């Protein structure tokens, strides 16, 4: 790849919902989970496709815009903007979505002289991939002046990259991929003339979760965003995709459960234990140094009563477990796996309720630099999302990539492997010294499909 390669913006526009429901005239309120996200960054994920024979890219762009306008009918708050109400005495800062005073969702067309092999064939994810996404380094509070959803379609020499940037105060990873999947479904339906009625198989549940007896408008104990918004700069990182075949994942799960004398430890918990243990070894931590591991957990089914599986919004926790480095490395893999499994098993509806009650008594905002301890591991995203099901008439994606957002030393994002069948790809971010050591770790690399 030529170091002079670049991404050039050709056009910028906005897309509004094809029609707007009556309820869009009212403020769209946010839940406590949404408020907590105001100072973190947009979710940025995208898919790379082979470029089909095209008379003109304009035809594809128009189809993408048309289907986006229809999709936004079902997800109309994403076409809005954040708005706030503030008071000085007492200090109060409330945020909601104004679905009327907005130009819509962003839509960008860009070009690049890169080829698919420059992305897929690179050992480390090239930093230019960050240019495939809009809202670079933006925090969610910026949704007051920036679109809450922005699409960037980047035309490569032989590929098409569709990158989505979605305001994290509007939804979590489950919500993000629900939108991506719905957009693809409507695109495919329009292609086959089967979607004139604008229907979705599983429409989103837009009504926000508001704890009984509270809201619908919450307030933070501040009068100005400078009091609670902080930008985050990632350190210099190496970012690499590691692939684990379905056979390896099955073998790993079987081995871990045999070691632990159980059948309850999942494939993902087993893989999380491996990555936690091996990154800890790569960091060469003192044996008495505590290291933590967090796993993103969807709370929809854990609440009482449970939220609908198609609930659109934030509804997640970062479950934490910890151990001394010496414990992780001197014990077998089962030790780490049981720690991870226990953190998940103990995350009950009561724990979720306690978390909500804590926020209601003392509202807080997440800050990346304070949320995760140094020398920790954070397992984000999920291999359960049907990410490769988003095709847009372009066939199955070649690979998945993410933008700048939420990258730090020890951040790991899990994707379904392209081959399917339970295979998993891990996007691992480490400082260069630790990445080099991980690549030399026999336990880890013996599981990786090269």
From TrEMBL:
Q: State one molecular function term (GO).
A: acyltransferase activity, transferring groups other than amino-acyl groups
The reply on keyword Transferase is: yes
InterPro entries documented for this protein:
CAT-like_dom_sf (IPR023213), Sec_Metabolite_Acyltrans (IPR051283)
GO cellular component terms, A-Z? cytoplasm
Question: Keywords in UniProt for this one?
Answer: Acyltransferase, Transferase
Q: Does the keyword Repressor apply?
A: no
The family assignment reads:
Belongs to the plant acyltransferase family.
Q: Please report the name of this protein according to its UniProt entry.
A: HXXXD-type acyl-transferase family protein
**What organism does the record attribute this protein to?**
Arabidopsis thaliana (Mouse-ear cress)
Could you read off the lineage of the organism from its UniProt record?
Answer: Eukaryota, Viridiplantae, Streptophyta, Embryophyta, Tracheophyta
């Amino acid at each position: 790849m030529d170091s002079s390669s670049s991404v050039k913006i050709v056009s910028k526009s906005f897309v509004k919902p094809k029609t707007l429901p009556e309820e869009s005239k009212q403020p769209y309120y946010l839940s406590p989970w949404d408020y907590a996200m105001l100072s973190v960054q947009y979710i940025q994920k995208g898919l790379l496709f082979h470029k089909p024979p095209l008379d003109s890219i304009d035809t594809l762009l128009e189809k993408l815009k048309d289907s986006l306008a229809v999709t936004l009918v079902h997800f109309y708050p994403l076409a809005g903007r954040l708005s706030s109400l503030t008071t000085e005495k007492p200090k109060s800062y409330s945020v909601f979505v104004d679905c009327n005073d907005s130009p819509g969702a962003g839509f960008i067309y860009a070009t690049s002289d890169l080829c698919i092999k420059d992305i897929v064939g690179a050992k480390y994810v090239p930093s230019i991939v960050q240019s495939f996404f809009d809202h670079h380094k933006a925090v969610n509070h910026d949704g007051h002046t920036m679109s809450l959803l922005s699409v960037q379609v980047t035309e490569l020499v032989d590929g098409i990259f569709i990158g989505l940037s979605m305001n994290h105060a509007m939804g979590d990873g489950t919500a993000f991929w629900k939108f991506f999947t719905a957009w693809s479904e409507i695109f495919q339906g329009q292609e086959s003339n089967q979607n004139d009625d604008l229907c979705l198989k599983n429409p989103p549940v837009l009504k926000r979760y508001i704890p009984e007896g509270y809201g619908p408008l919450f307030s933070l104990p501040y009068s100005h965003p400078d009091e609670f918004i902080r930008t985050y700069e990632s350190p210099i990182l190496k970012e690499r995709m590691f692939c684990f075949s379905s056979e390896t994942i099955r073998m790993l799960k079987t081995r871990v459960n045999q070691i632990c004398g159980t059948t309850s430890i999942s494939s993902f918990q087993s893989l999380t234990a491996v990555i936690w243990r091996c990154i800890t070894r790569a960091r060469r931590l003192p044996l008495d140094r505590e290291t933590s591991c967090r796993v993103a957990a969807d709370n929809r089914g854990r609440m009482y009563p449970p939220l609908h599986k198609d609930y659109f919004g934030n509804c997640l926790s970062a479950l934490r477990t910890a151990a001394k480095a010496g414990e992780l490395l001197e014990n077998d893999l089962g030790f780490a796996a049981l720690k991870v499994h226990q953190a998940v098993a103990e995350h009950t509806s009561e724990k979720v309720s306690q978390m909500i009650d804590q926020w209601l008594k003392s509202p807080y905002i997440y800050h990346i630099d304070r949320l995760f301890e140094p020398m920790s591991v954070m397992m984000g995203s999920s291999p359960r999302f049907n990410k490769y099901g988003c095709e847009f008439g372009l066939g199955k994606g070649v690979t998945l990539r993410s933008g700048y957002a939420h990258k730090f030393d020890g951040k790991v994002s899990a994707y379904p492997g392209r081959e399917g069948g339970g295979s998993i790809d891990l996007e691992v971010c480490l400082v260069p010294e630790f990445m080099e050591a991980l690549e030399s770790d026999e336990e880890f690399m013996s599981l990786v499909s090269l």
